[in-house]
Design brief:
Number of strands of chain B: 5
Largest interface: A-B, 22 and 24 residues
Number of helices of chain B: 28
Order of helices and strands of chain A: HHEHEHEHEHEEHEHHEEHHHHHH
Structural class of chain B: mainly alpha
Shape of chain A: globular
Largest sheet of chain A: 7 strands, mixed
Distance between the termini of chain A: 69 Å
Number of strands of chain A: 9
Strand order of the largest sheet of chain A: 3-2-1-4-7-5-8
Oligomer: heterodimer
Strand content of chain A: 5-15%
Radius of gyration of chain B: 26 Å
Radius of gyration of chain A: 22 Å
Structural class of chain A: alpha/beta
Number of helices of chain A: 15
Helix content of chain A: 55-70%
Strand content of chain B: under 5%
Distance between the termini of chain B: 82 Å
Strand order of the largest sheet of chain B: 2-1-3-5-4
Chain lengths: 428, 541
């Protein structure tokens, strides 16, 4: 009697888990292929036409911490050499990081008319804190954020300017693309993740009226930032938080993608720093979720969407691990065939998503002029389960930190490997 | 003051588009036609009995009443099982089992008819021609006779048509192409022969001016379709029956049997072969549809968006023309929509050609607003004339043949003897005796208080299911009664049912209703003992 009861409970559990996994896999499939859902969607996700005359002015903040001079100089060069006529750059550094600060002052001295340095002397050190300090000395209409290691396209600001004007936007979110896809086994997956995020997912979220912004290549009207007191300095995902707060306020957020306007970056240089970065994001999403601003969204549908979006990273991470486990239990447990078959059903959207990943990798290569080889496609597929384990581990780590209220900022270090890919693409 | 009916009419007119209203009318007409005399003609077939029994076994938690041997994927009869409440809803719950299941199949037939109309509209045919296509599909005797029987081809067909409908979407949306893959997979899992239309579906997808997300569409269609199809071998794998082995059935054996070792139907170039007879049978029911459709398909090559029709007919006819393997009689069912659509497209082309010669018609023929500018009276007259001419041609050529064919189908009762035999058996056969019955009657006798598949034994299972020997080591001597109908002797010969043949040989008729006979097996005379010797030796196989 008792063993039967246990078997029945596990059987029911398998059915429940399968249904949940199917829903997660299907929604993941939906958001990640949204841009290709319809030829019309493709057109709607791109930048607006380019207006003949730029009308706005830009203050670009470049937060730096323990960066090499090579990486900083290259980023700054691309920001200063924008085609847009009205740009100032503010390098934001912390007072406890004298080497980077020195580099920043040295670089600023070379272009005194365009570049200034903002030194943050607060006790707590993190990115939102640095951003708020830098915001105080910004003078122009639009504030833009660029990470220390990101390479902006030369005509990006011209397009963003037109986008602000034509779409009457409060925020314009451009796209970021990791490019050093050949470096390590996880970098290819990581690059593709960014590709789907900016090419498709963000647009799908935007359509639902709930947008977790990114922390890079994002442009916000300075007065709008003023009304909401800038970034939340206690939040590890200050970018996501900003998006949530602006979504709640019905501010007009425009997401735009064009392959040649993406800001190029590199992946974290080791698995260790990838896990750190992911833990920080997960923790940030948990914080945003816990803050509960999303609960004030007007419709139930939007609130559900917000909850789903904020939790999705975790769902995805654990779904990948649950799936083999659920199938294994169903097969080994000798349940009735329909139950066992049901355990396999979530594989349909999951494997289809992998097939679409292959298509997206093809498009990624085409968009950026990289020659994607057969080996790369195989590597993409083979790396998937291991990458899934990494994500789940990071999510679990974040959960533990969240329970222990450990919100210290773990910095992702950069080696500048993406700089070599710029040359490769230019030659291709 | 408008009456209530007028108000309702007005509301319907404004709520639904012209296509939706027409589709609803077509559905009603098709439902009326397929329900008409449904239980009386054509004769109940053993295959219908098989699928009915398998569908009802699903409701009892099994894939078939006997050992499920992967003859077909179980999705076809699972759908019949899922809809088995339909006849009860329409007050037909007291009919014979196969009869009730025919009402369920009618729902699939109606769906197919509506989809033929909708596909014709997606091909941008004139509404009148789209209606014509649906009417041809419904009224052709070939379609009507096959479409009302419990065949899993009829279950898979609407899924196949839905796949084409989604594939032809003018918006080129990815989810529609993924949906087409899913529908196609369900069609193939309902009846595996529908897989032959896969290439035509690919032509429908790819043979149009390129679009940006085309590669994604292709991958979505293939991956989702393929993944869903994989559930059939997965089912076999989970039951440890994927590969051939001693002591169990297997998917491998079933595939080998269906495609290789099953007695073939011969070549079409041999006038005496079963294949030729089968094709002649299709022609007998509606030669105009078959020949006219094939000729019209050639004309379809002229239209880019309709080229999947000749492609579909080409892959369909390849096994008919060059194959020699087994060909089921229902194989033609899936080709009928292609034939009627080909005729509709050709008619549309003909109308366009005519329009070039007669300018008044041209304005009536175009979809654009220019039509409104011509004189309405003349336009209507021209339209009426052309439509009338087409209708007249149909009346003269098709109607006499159709009327005589369909009259038999819609007026006669071919199942009276079957019903009498069943009634007599229910009343007179002792419940504890073992009876060998044709599959068309199996479910009714089984459900009539017996509930033991080894007391009410379907004819072929005696020889083909090894379980029989477990329950009845005495082989044919275990049989007390045989219900013999027209297909019994044929099945014994075609399927080489030796033990069943022995039982039949040792039996005498006790009751007779037309072609149907009830026989009692005689076991204790001297000659039967002698004759039984070899059969007993085989029982252990």
């Amino acid at each position: 009697m008792f063993p039967t009861l246990i078997a029945a409970t596990i059987g029911l559990l398998i059915v429940g888990v399968s249904v949940a996994l199917f829903a997660i896999a299907l929604s993941t499939l939906y958001v990640s292929t949204h841009a290709w859902w319809d030829p019309l969607t493709q057109a709607s996700t791109s930048y607006t036409e380019l207006l003949p005359k730029p009308a706005l002015s830009f203050s670009l903040i470049m937060p730096c911490r323990h960066e090499s001079e090579r990486v900083m100089a290259s980023t700054l060069k691309h920001l200063c050499e924008q085609d847009h006529p009205n740009v100032e750059v503010i390098i934001s550094v912390g007072h406890d990081d004298p080497e980077t600060a020195a580099t920043a002052y040295r670089l600023a001295a070379r272009r005194p008319e365009k570049v200034r340095v903002s030194l943050d002397s607060g006790a707590v050190k993190n990115k939102p804190q640095q951003l708020n300090t830098a915001l105080a000395i910004c003078r122009n209409d639009i504030v833009g954020i660029f990470d220390a290691e990101s390479i902006a396209a030369p005509d990006l600001l011209l397009h963003v300017d037109s986008c602000f004007q034509i779409r009457n936007a409060d925020v314009v979110q451009g796209a970021v693309q990791l490019v050093n896809y050949r470096d390590t086994w996880y970098s290819l997956r990581n690059c593709l993740e960014y590709f789907t995020w900016f090419r498709s997912r963000l647009h799908a979220y935007a359509k639902q009226g709930f947008i977790p912004l990114g922390g890079n290549t994002v442009f916000i009207r300075r007065d709008v930032l003023g009304t909401i007191n800038g970034w939340d300095a206690r939040c590890l995902a200050e970018d996501c938080d900003l998006g949530v707060r602006l979504s709640v306020l019905h501010r007009r957020i425009v997401i735009a993608y064009s392959p040649h306007l993406v800001t190029k970056e590199e992946t974290p240089d080791s698995i260790r720093s990838l896990v750190k970065q992911r833990t920080r994001w997960s923790l940030g999403f948990m914080q945003v979720h816990a803050k509960g601003d999303w609960k004030t969204l007007p419709t139930m549908r939007q609130r559900c969407m917000a909850w789903w979006t904020l939790m999705q990273q975790h769902f995805m991470a654990f779904a990948g691990l649950c799936l083999p486990f659920s199938i294994g239990t169903a097969v080994l447990g000798k349940y009735p065939v329909p139950i066992t078959l049901l355990a396999f059903v979530p594989l349909v959207p999951a494997v289809a998503a992998l097939a679409f990943d292959v298509c997206m990798l093809h498009e990624f290569g085409r968009d950026h002029g990289y020659r994607i080889r057969m080996y790369d496609y195989l590597r993409l597929v083979a790396a998937t389960p291991f990458y899934q384990v990494l994500l789940a581990f990071a999510a679990l780590r974040a959960l533990i930190k969240f329970r222990r209220h450990d919100f210290r900022w773990e910095k992702t270090s950069h080696s500048g490997s993406h700089l070599e890919y710029l040359g490769a693409a230019a030659k291709a | 003051m408008p009456t209530r009916a007028a108000k309702v009419f007005w509301a319907i007119r404004h709520r639904f588009s012209a296509d939706q209203r027409t589709a609803a009318l077509i559905a009603l007409a098709a439902a009326a036609l397929s329900g008409w005399n449904l239980l009386n003609a054509p004769e109940y077939q053993d295959d219908e009995g098989t699928y009915t029994a398998q569908a009802l076994a699903i409701l009892e938690g099994r894939l078939a009443p006997y050992t499920y041997w992967y003859d077909h994927p179980p999705v076809g009869w699972s759908q019949l099982a899922a809809l088995s409440w339909l006849p009860v809803l329409f007050g037909q719950g007291n009919q014979s089992s196969v009869g009730q299941m025919r009402y369920v199949v009618a729902a699939f037939f109606v769906a197919s008819t509506v989809l033929v109309y909708l596909i014709a509209r997606r091909l941008e045919l004139r509404q009148v021609l789209a209606v014509l296509a649906a009417a041809l599909f419904c009224l052709s005797p070939l379609s009507l006779v096959l479409g009302r029987q419990v065949f899993i081809d009829n279950v898979g067909l609407p899924w196949l048509l839905l796949a084409f409908y989604l594939m032809l979407s003018p918006r080129l949306r990815l989810w529609e192409h993924i949906g087409a893959g899913a529908c196609f997979a369900i069609a193939v899992l309902s009846k595996e022969t529908l897989a032959i239309f896969g290439p035509a579906l690919l032509v429908a997808l790819l043979h149009r001016p390129g679009w940006k997300t085309r590669f994604f569409s292709l991958v979505g269609f293939l991956s989702v379709g393929g993944l869903i199809l994989a559930f059939f071998p997965l089912l076999a794998l989970l039951q440890n029956e994927l590969l051939s082995g001693p002591g169990h059935v297997s998917l491998q054996d079933a595939v080998t049997y269906q495609f290789a070792s099953r007695p073939g139907s011969g070549s079409i170039f041999d006038p005496q072969s079963d294949r030729t007879k089968l094709v002649m049978g299709w022609m007998y029911y509606d030669k105009y549809l078959v020949v006219g459709g094939i000729v019209a398909a050639l004309a379809c090559i002229l239209r880019r968006e309709a080229r999947w029709i000749p492609a579909g007919l080409l892959v369909f006819s390849a096994p008919v023309v060059i194959g020699q393997g087994y060909m089921p009689a229902m194989y033609v069912i899936a080709a009928i929509p292609f034939l009627v659509l080909a005729i509709a497209v050709a008619a549309d082309l003909a109308w366009n050609c005519l329009a070039l010669l007669v300018p008044v018609l041209a304005s009536a023929a175009t979809h654009s607003n220019t039509a409104a500018r011509t004189v309405p009276g003349r336009r209507r007259a021209a339209r009426g004339l052309t439509g009338g001419a087409m209708l007249a041609a149909l009346t003269v050529v098709l109607l006499p043949q159709w009327l005589s064919m369909n009259r038999t189908l819609l007026e006669t009762n071919s199942n009276a003897d079957w019903q009498h035999a069943l009634d007599w058996s229910k009343e007179n056969l002792p419940r504890q005796d073992t009876a060998l019955v044709p599959y068309s009657m199996w479910q009714d006798l089984y459900a009539d208080g017996r509930h033991d598949p080894w007391k009410v034994v379907a004819l072929e299972k005696m020889d083909l299911d090894s379980e029989f020997a477990v329950h009845h080591p005495d082989s044919w001597r275990a049989i007390d009664w045989i219900i013999e109908g027209p297909p019994t002797a044929r099945n014994i010969k075609n399927l080489q049912l030796r033990n069943a043949g022995e039982a039949l040989k040792h039996s005498r008729v006790v009751a007779s209703f037309g072609d149907w006979r009830i026989r009692e097996v005689v076991k204790n005379t001297q000659e039967t003992v002698n004759a039984a010797a070899p059969a007993t030796a085989e029982a252990g196989q």
